[in-house]
Amino acid sequence: MHSSVFRLVSHRKEFPMSQLIQRRVFLMTLAASSAVVGTEVRAQAMVDEKDAQAAALGYVADAKRVDAKKYPKFAASQNCANCALYQAKGDKAGGCPLFAGKQVAGAGWCSAWAKKP
Asked: Which end of the chain is more exposed for a tag (fewer CB within 10 A), N or C?
């Protein structure tokens, strides 16, 4: 058997060694990138209420602390977990497109709150 050709006995096909190496590298890269993406999702930092974007939107990690005089449209039933922008289901924290790369508290609130459809 030639060194640049690998024979798969079960399929009775011959594949060039370079093609098999490329496939192996692709699968290893795919597995590694999946692990990294999964780790990044779990390791996202929480939004700091003092962050410029958070302060501009009136974000608080606990909706019970919302200043109702400053935000008259706030209702006690509103929180991040029932907002249309919240990207988690029932979790204590989840992503929000307004705070890219960070998580908001499910019990939190900001002035961009929108009712889920």
From this structure: C
Q: Which helix (H) or strand (E) holds 45?
A: strand 45-46
Residue 31: what are its φ and ψ, rounded to 5°? -65, -45
Calculated CA dihedral for residues 9, 12, 16, 22, nearest 10 degrees: -70
Q: What is the pLDDT of residues 84-94, one digit of tens each?
A: 999 998 779 99
State the Cα torsion 45-49-53-58 to the nearest 10°: 140
**Rounded distance, CA 23 to CA 42, Å?**
29
Q: Which CATH number does the domain housing residue 85 bear?
A: 4.10.490.10
Closest CA to 96 of 69, 59, 65: 59
Q: Which residues pair with 95 in a beta bridge?
A: 87, 103
Decide if 116 is inside a domain.
no
What does the pLDDT read at residue 39? Answer: 47
Q: What is the amino acid identity at position 45?
A: A
Q: HSE of 47 in the Cβ direction (CA atoms, 13 Å)? A: 32
